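Because showing beats explaining, we think one record worth quoting, sequence and backbone structure tokens together, and here it is:
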Amino acid sequence: MRGLSAFAAAVLLHEAGHIAAARLLGIPCRRGSGVIGGLRLAFDFSRAGYWQEAAVHLAGPAAGILGAFLAARIPGGEDFGGVSLLLAAVNLLPCEGLDGGGILRCLLHLTPLGFRAESAARTVSLLVCAAFWLFAAREALRGGNLSVLLFAAALMILR
């Protein structure tokens, strides 16, 4: 499996992980839409607790990690495995709009922070995204890949 088809399969597996967890927990999916670099699903967490919401956020990257593990054992599965693992790792960044940001927000709500959990999650998200952008800018200036800088800029803009 090469390039775009490996990426498309990794994205579908990732989203299937979210959908499977949501169905198991009885959380309805309100809508899905295509976004740059993948899909965005919107679930109705209004009747779910923070643990259940965090589990749905975590299920996408977990499916990707499992898929990468299995692909490593199949001849020719390296492309899919690498893309799937990278997609999982990026989605675990604690940035708003990514699964890691949702997990962080849910976990902070389970602490004594109370109403300040949202503010704390936004602050962590901003700091992580800014640090990632600075790293990407430094690498681009050193002659590195510009796609990482573009991704970092998109993270800052779309948060």
